[in-house]
Write a structure and sequence with these properties.
It is found in: Cell surface. This is Tfp pilus assembly protein. One of its GO terms (cellular component) is cell surface. By secondary structure, the protein is an alpha+beta fold. It has one domain (13-187). Helix content is 30%, strand content 40%. Strands 1, 2, 3, 4, 5, 6, 7, 8 and 9 form a 9-stranded antiparallel beta sheet that branches. The chain starts with 12 loop residues before the first helix and ends with a strand.
Length: 188
């Protein structure tokens, strides 16, 4: 086959059909690769937004916990879906001796719970509308280092959150985002 047509007859119908078919195949492959890349780009963007929102929620939890300044965790009401922190001690100066002592005070509580696919602080949801927490795959746990009666005074809390995008949670959706798990540990 000649590389260039140098006569006035042009291309035969068979050559023209072959060229058009090859062109359509190349354009079809390019379109599919482009669309696949766009869907992957959108999926990664959505996953990053979900991670950011989950990190923001955990930052809210840690900030509120820091503001509350708990003395420990109530082990009688703490479950795998609820953590209850208590504040029942206050430092006071004994003026007779001049020493700082801890005195028992009125017990205040701070609860963190997983309910209705939401993360709640003292019954108030802090979850965003876009982020769905899968309650049956999420959990709270703790390891107590120092316990006094029903109060764990020191330990490590582990929070496992299974999150999913609420708008792309159907497996039939073209931008389906599978649930993923985030794990946070902190000491108190």
């Amino acid at each position: 086959m000649k590389r260039f047509v140098n006569n006035e007859r042009g291309l035969s119908l068979l050559e023209l059909l072959a060229a058009v078919t090859i062109s359509f195949l190349i354009v079809g492959v390019m379109y599919n690769v482009f669309m696949s890349g766009m869907k992957t780009y959108q999926r990664i963007g959505i996953e990053n937004e979900l991670r950011s929102e989950a990190d923001y929620m955990m930052a809210i939890v840690l900030n509120r916990l820091y503001e509350f300044a708990p003395d420990g965790m109530d082990t009688t009401t703490t479950t795998n879906t609820q953590l209850v922190f208590v504040n029942n001690k206050q430092k006071a100066i004994d003026t007779r001796v001049g020493l700082v002592e801890e005195e028992e005070t009125e017990t205040k509580s701070f609860s963190l719970a997983l309910a209705n696919d939401e993360l709640q602080i003292d019954g108030q949801p802090i979850s965003s509308e876009r982020l769905k927490i899968i309650s049956n795959q999420s959990s709270f746990s703790y390891t107590c280092v120092r316990q006094e009666g029903n109060i764990c005074r020191s330990g490590v809390v582990t929070i496992v959150l299974a999150v999913q995008d609420s708008t792309h949670n159907s497996p039939n959706s073209p931008l389906y985002i599978r649930p993923f798990t985030l794990k946070t540990e902190f000491g108190f």
